[in-house]
């Protein structure tokens, strides 16, 4: 076939090639579109490392987008996965079984832990730590997030009274990692432990509120402000978490522990066609989702954004690259990974260690205050439950007595 095509060009001329003119006319435009798509798809992970015998806690794995792609890749590499989900029901159990069938890995487990509920986070962390000897833990991969429609007019709060995005993206993740610090420090000094926390490029537009880190007293103006600020504060708090892990290990150095075997990494996977983007574009409307997102904007979004699989490449790179191992690191600072490459933070807050410390400590205090308040409410509700049940029993007994007298 190629020889016939070349022969026709040589002996019969260009006119003999069918559809050559439209091909030549449109080929520059197609080349430009191809170059844009090649650029927007981002870099690929090149490290082919097995994860056999390793155990990871994962959040946000059931999104059917980036999170699911990361979980599939890690399971295929042989890792044992503890996947945190808001609710364990028939759908989640069926999804977990499907994951096991697709990867051939039976060591995929679900644990209920709604990150927007501080009480559930504490219950999971307490159960995890309540084990002797300490359980193996090779890392935590945080991919969960809540992005409310930007046109939202009213504040949506969690069960603890925290704005839902601030609760899910910041308070819950911070609480989980803060409580799991003993587990990180209990790992052998030669074990490579990685804490991977995903963020969003919108963190560059966020605000850091060190005095009210949970934004309990901040008036609600726009959901975008709360989303971007939750991502910014989480990244800043992770810098201080790394500092705490290293400094505490150096003070209580035993068996050659330096604390540098636990590496905190912030990953920015890029702009993806994710559930969050769909909610923002559609503004929470089914009509907008079907017409605007799926019909009008999808060709443009396909061209300029990543798929969930492509977004997962940077996270898999952060899990498998040997550059983050203690032996290959020149410092103990938190790395910021974008497109499988370490880059520098752009905002000045990432260089202000005093601000990071103040944010971290005030967040711990405010979370403790919220937990105490909610514990009091739970105790009151438990005390009221017996009274209600007794009144119901009294009503039932009175009814049975009346029925008995009528029958007699």
In brief, what are we looking at here?
The protein is α/β, with parallel strands linked by helices. 53% of the residues lie in helices and 10% in strands.
Q: Give the integer mean of the pLDDT values.
A: 88
Tell me about the largest β-sheet: 8 strands, mixed
Helix content: 40-55%
- The main sheet orders its strands as 3-2-1-4-5-6-7-8
N/C terminus separation: 101 Å
Runs with pLDDT <50, length 5+?
none
Number of helices: 12
The shape is globular
| Quaternary | single chain
CATH architecture of the domain at 55-270 and 306-364: 3-Layer(aba) Sandwich
Please name the CATH topology of the domain at 55-270 and 306-364: Rossmann fold
**Approximately how much beta-strand content do the residues carry?**
5-15%
What's the level 1 CATH class of the domain at 55-270 and 306-364? Alpha Beta
The CATH superfamily of the domain at 55-270 and 306-364 appears as NAD(P)-binding Rossmann-like Domain
Rg for CA atoms = 27 Å
Instruction: Give a count of the beta strands, DSSP E runs of length 2 or more.
Output: 8
The assigned structural class equals alpha/beta
Keywords: Membrane, Oxidoreductase, Transmembrane, Transmembrane helix
Region (Disordered): 371-408
Organism: Kluyveromyces dobzhanskii CBS 2104
Transmembrane segments: 284-304
């Amino acid at each position: 076939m190629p020889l016939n095509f070349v022969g026709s060009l040589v002996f019969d001329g260009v006119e003999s090639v069918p559809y050559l003119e439209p091909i030549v006319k449109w080929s520059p435009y197609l080349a430009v579109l191809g170059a844009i798509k090649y650029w927007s798809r981002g870099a690929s992970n090149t490290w082919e490392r097995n994860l056999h015998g390793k155990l990871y806690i994962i959040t946000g794995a059931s999104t059917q987008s980036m999170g699911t792609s990361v979980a599939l890749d890690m399971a295929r590499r042989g890792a044992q996965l503890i996947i945190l989900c808001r609710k364990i029901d028939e759908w989640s159990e069926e999804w977990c079984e499907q994951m096991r069938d697709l990867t051939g890995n039976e060591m995929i487990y679900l644990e209920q832990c709604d990150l927007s509920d501080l009480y559930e986070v504490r219950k999971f962390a307490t159960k995890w730590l309540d084990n002797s000897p300490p359980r193996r833990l090779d890392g935590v991969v945080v991919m969960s997030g809540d992005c409310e429609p930007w046109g939202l007019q009213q504040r949506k709060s969690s069960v603890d009274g925290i704005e839902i995005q601030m609760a899910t993206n910041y308070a819950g993740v911070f609480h989980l990692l803060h409580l799991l610090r003993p587990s990180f420090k209990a790992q052998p000094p030669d074990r490579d432990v990685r804490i991977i926390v995903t963020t969003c490029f919108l963190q560059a537009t966020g605000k850091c509120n060190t005095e009210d880190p949970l934004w309990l007293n901040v008036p609600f103006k726009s959901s975008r402000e709360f989303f971007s600020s939750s991502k910014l504060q989480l990244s800043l708090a992770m810098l201080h978490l790394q500092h705490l892990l290293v400094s505490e290990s150096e003070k209580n150095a035993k068996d050659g522990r330096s604390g540098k075997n636990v590496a905190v990494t912030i990953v920015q996977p890029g702009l993806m066609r994710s559930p969050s983007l769909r909610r923002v574009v559609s503004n929470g409307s089914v009509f907008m989702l079907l017409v605007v997102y799926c019909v009008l904007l999808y060709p443009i979004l396909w061209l300029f954004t990543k798929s969930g699989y492509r977004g997962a490449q940077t996270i898999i790179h952060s899990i498998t690259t040997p550059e983050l191992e203690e032996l290959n690191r020149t410092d103990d600072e938190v790395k910021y990974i974008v497109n499988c490459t370490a880059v520098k933070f752009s905002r000045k807050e990432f260089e202000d260690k005093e601000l990071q410390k103040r944010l971290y400590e005030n967040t711990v205090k405010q979370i403790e205050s919220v937990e105490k308040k909610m514990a009091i409410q739970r105790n009151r509700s438990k005390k009221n439950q017996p009274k209600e049940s007794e009144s119901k029993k009294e009503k039932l007994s009175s009814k049975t007595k009346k029925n008995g007298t009528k029958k007699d």
